[in-house]
Amino acid sequence: MRISRIAGAILVLLFANITSAEAQDTWSLQRCVDYALQNNLTVKQQEVQKRLADLTLRQSRLQMIPGFSGSVTGGYTDGRSASLGDNQYVNQTVFNSSGNLNMQANLFSWFYQQKTIAANKLDAQANSFLLEKARNDLAFNVATAFLQILLNIQTEKVNEENVRLTNSNLDNTKKLVIAGSVPESNQADLEAQLALDSSNLVTAQNNVTLSILQMKAYLNLGFEIPFTPEVPENIASLPMAALQEMAPEMVYSAALTNYPLVKSDELKIKSATRAYQAAKAQLYPNLSIGGGLSTYYANNYYEDLAQTKVLSFHDQISNTYRKNIGLTLNIPIFNGWQQRTTVAKAKVNIYSQELIRDLDHQKLRQDIYTAHANAVAALQKFNASATGVMAAQKAYDFATKRFNLGLMNTIDYITTQSKLYNAQVNKVLAQYDYIFKMKLLEFYRDQKISL
Q1: Is the dihedral of CA 413, 417, 422, 423 positive or negative?
Q2: C-alpha–C-alpha distance, residues 393 and 384, integer Å
Q3: Using CB atoms within 10 A as the burial measure, which of 81, 95, 339, 378 is most buried?
Q4: From edge to edge, which strands make up the β-sheet containing 322-330?
């Protein structure tokens, strides 16, 4: 998966107007997600779990193939031993060697192997969905971190504008103080306000740095590497799905068919059921077939009783060549109730997986209802903050005219300016908060955002 659907949709929304020249020098959202999917440690951990599950499935399938092995042994003995020609014990040094080929195959194990393979196959599929979930979660976290960077950049700009306005007012006030139009205390009040505004700007700049560090953590990117995000021209122009189309129960019903964790939970239950059936199969007899070939050579195997000449290697191999084949029926009678305990534990594991599924469903529904409530509140807060900015701006414009005419003291003027600043910051926060809440709802609904 090159990029998750949620991240891809946000990418289209946020960066449709960014030029290719800018992309060469900055980090787009898609570049962030692509890099994170290749380097994030959490995703790598889940990839390892998927590979382990695939290997377990492969091994269970290979166990259906008959076992085949061979061995060759050789050694010296010194002392009394029987001569192979006359079976008389004499003191001698003997070199001997032997070779064996063995085959073992399971003919019937009461469906144990088939159920085990089915369980492992379902478990491998479940891990595939868990990997998809890890990638989607990472892509969404990267998108959220990207929005947080943009929010902090906008907040920094508001603070920069506030410092600029305070500086401008301070310059004008200094001229009025020199002209004797206003008292010198007005200048001191504005200098104190400039110090406060400068402190707020430093905090805003630090928040940008911290949010970039969070992004680098998701990307597993060296902290010393520069990171400059692509900034959209107008965040307010992003199209949003209508809130009335995001009824929480409707979103939840859609999520049950699309959310990877939900699919993984269902497969885990099926896998546990197959594992339970495989455990039960171990209570029944097992039938297997085995066979082998063997031969032997020794340097005390003589051609005649006179023991004058050792039988040739080829003749010994032919003379001692043996074949065997047999059936083995293994009947479990009593093993300390171990297998019955294994069956009982496998049955309990099914119930455990069902509880995990129910808990995940409960959390998913709660998260969706919470996200919907937050989206409603965020929209109301954004509308209120937009109205508040217009009112604060109008009040500030009137206050500026009165202050310049000497009809307002510095404290009241600074208070009016602070109200405008707070209103602007609150609007930016509310705007980005509403965007995030709506993207989250769209992600829950169908893993993509409607354009």
Answers
A1: positive
A2: 14
A3: 378
A4: 67-82, 89-108, 286-298, 322-330
**pLDDT for position 20:** 39
Terminus-to-terminus CA distance in the chain, angstroms? 21
Query: Which residues contact residue 267 at a Cβ distance below 8 angstroms, ignoring those fewer than 6 apart?
Result: 122, 123, 125, 126, 129
Q: Are 142 and 218 in contact (CB under 8 A)?
A: yes
Q: Average pLDDT by consecutive 10-residue portion of the chain (451 residues)?
A: 41 41 64 89 93 93 87 85 70 84 82 89 94 87 86 86 85 84 82 90 94 93 88 68 84 89 94 93 87 88 75 86 89 79 93 95 92 90 90 92 82 83 83 83 71 32
Contact (CB, 8 A) for 345 and 352: no
* Long-range own/partner contacts, residues 78-82 (CB < 8 A, 24 or more apart): 81/300
- What type of residue is 401? K
Q: Are 298 and 263 in contact (CB under 8 A)?
A: no
- List all residues 6 or more positions away from 443 whose beta carbon is below 8 Å from its beta carbon: 6, 140, 449
C-alpha–C-alpha distance, residues 238 and 258, integer Å: 25
Distances (CA, A) of 5 to 28, 201, 258, 447: 16, 36, 12, 6
pLDDT tens digit string along 124-171?
A: 999 999 998 898 888 888 888 888 898 888 889 888 988 988 888 888
What is the distance between the alpha carbons of residues 236 and 221, in angstroms, rounded to a whole number? Answer: 30
Element (H, E) at 140: helix 112-179
Going by the DSSP 8-state scheme, the letter that residue 283 receives in this structure is T
* Residue 176 parent element (H or E): helix 112-179
